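User: Batch of two.

Assistant: Item 1 of 2:
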Amino acid sequence: MKSPARQTFPRAYHRMCAWILGFRFVVNGQPDTAEPCLFVSNHTSYLDIIVLGALIDGCFVAKTEVSGWPFFGPLSKLQRTVYVDRKRASAGRQRDSMVERLTDGGRLILFPEGTSSDGNRTLPFRSALFAVASTPGADGKPLKVQPVSLACTHLDGWPLGRNLRWLYSWYGDMDLLSHIWRVAGIGSLTV
């Protein structure tokens, strides 16, 4: 169901979070406004969701476990997240769920790496997730795919090099709460 509140609240929420954290956005190029559309982005942190959620009216594709996380689970459900299981046996069913959302006129935001990294390189794409890009739209035309590249470039106006990307990146076994606390206190990040 596409109610106005269901479409407006998540984007407003992400914008509020970005404002609280002091994020500044620099967008190069024009995001595609077509529906359906698949936005494909690198993934360095849970913060990517705040950034893309503030800039793009779309639904995320996330691992199934996210639906059960405290706080983040209910928010992801509100945003109509498509949950995927990482087991190879369910790849076809997951692709069908993504195609259904796209056919319904949706815009999906996908991190085809399947996990976050330090942001200094792009990890290999998980082909099972990215296979949805070859699916034609409801009108039979090729699905529009919008590439997105996220990078945290400045801290309080000063250039942020490779050696400081860990300030934004969240990956591996990093503790979530301490990372959120650090990001909230370091100053203004330009993404």
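Item 2 of 2:
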Amino acid sequence: MSISAYLLYLMMAIILLWMWIRVRGKSLEEIVQISTDEHHALTDLFEEHPRGGSWSEFCSWQNNKS
């Protein structure tokens, strides 16, 4: 097996572990609600700043939302 296959398996394992940690102990309804809230927050942010900006501006916009 090539090194790229090992890297792909490693990335898949990391993503699955991250997802498991994030959803552990939550119902499907809670997971969907969290994802929906995050989606709407980003959609609202992009509507307010349609032309975008730098990464630091984006971070400050995110902090202003909280």
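The mean pLDDT is 87.
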